[in-house]
Amino acid sequence: MCISAIVNSNSTVTYVLQSTGVSSLGWLAIGFGSQMANTPMVIMWPNSDGSTTLSQRQASAEVMPTVVASPPRVATKVASLTALSSTMPQLAFSVPANSDSTQNLIWAFSSTPPDSSSVSAVLQKHLLSGVVQLNLKANSASFNPAQSGPSGTSGGAAGGSGSSSGTVKLPLLLYQKYVVAHAAIATFGFIVLLPTGALIARWLRTTNINWFMGHWVVQLAIAGPVIGLGLALGVLSVIESGAPHLNDPHKKLGVALLALYVAQCSLGAFIHFIKNPERKRRPAQNYAHAILGLTIIALALYQVWIGFRTEWPLNTGRDPVPHAATTAWIVWTVVLAVAYFGGLILLKKQFERERIAQFNRIHGTPPMGVYRTIPVDQ
């Protein structure tokens, strides 16, 4: 969709919302604010009988907005600027002007028509959405998301004139800053620190007697606080934005990863501190610990992927994360896989050392210079 704003001499501002024709028009909307929660919105759609509906709504969070009986600025349809027969249909309305010289707007487009012409009709979720800031000092301003990227944080003129003087880039909101901090810190904790601890265990356990110290310090003492801070910032961003908790796969997987991480640390402590000195084979919990660790890292990589590929543009309306992030994610995933599975070449040596240590615990350490032949089944 394209948005145009015209400051009229009669102290009103007229907004023209136009479909680009790429998708069929269901409904168009703008809101006078920077986020969905508690922002007055004007939603318009055409009806099958040729009429149009203007509905003024508001939402307390990222849910379907409901009709507001007394909006702060009452919108009026502008029939002279409404055109439904074109391949790029447009709808227009005007509102009383205020003292703002710049106007922060959220916008949304849906290709699914509402279920009726009623102002309180049920709306299906938008197909695209974003944020923009229009400079009303210029008396007329316009914005075309198609010329500025999918989110519409900056842009050019509606109708393809190419002018961008009326639009400026909207700074990050407070909740979006929390999201950025959450992403950076949680990513570092889950897909840098945790794999580092796993690689220490994989590569050093056959060459360095202090490998376990390095393993638990990285996995728990360092990664624990980092992961906790990252998740806390994620929760804080949801609270600040007014969005619901646990309403999408990214948020639910985040809670699941925290639970799995706590379970993994607990299992590692159990393995280390509670041992059967008479055991003759590697306990099953040791294998479970390794499998669970790899599962957490794999899920964390997927969590980061959906975080920057889906969660960020969907819940902030901002431009997608640069393509370089996708490239970095792919490279890092390959590096981790090669580094860990390459270390499996040491498994034979690891199991041999474990058999010798276990045999010596049961039968006593032989005198210096004396070598034992250990049965294979030991």
From TrEMBL:
Every DOMON domain range: 1-126
TM helices/strands, residue ranges: 179-204, 216-239, 254-274, 286-308, 328-347
Subcellular location: Membrane
Keyword Ubl conjugation attached: no
SUPFAM superfamilies (alphabetical): CBD9-like
Keywords: Electron transport, Membrane, Transmembrane, Transmembrane helix, Transport
GO cellular component annotations of the record: membrane
UniProt-listed InterPro entries: Cellobiose_DH-like_cyt, Cyt_b561/ferric_Rdtase_TM, DOMON_domain
Residue span, Cytochrome b561 domain: 134-350
The protein, known as: CBD9-like protein
Species for this entry: Sistotremastrum niveocremeum HHB9708
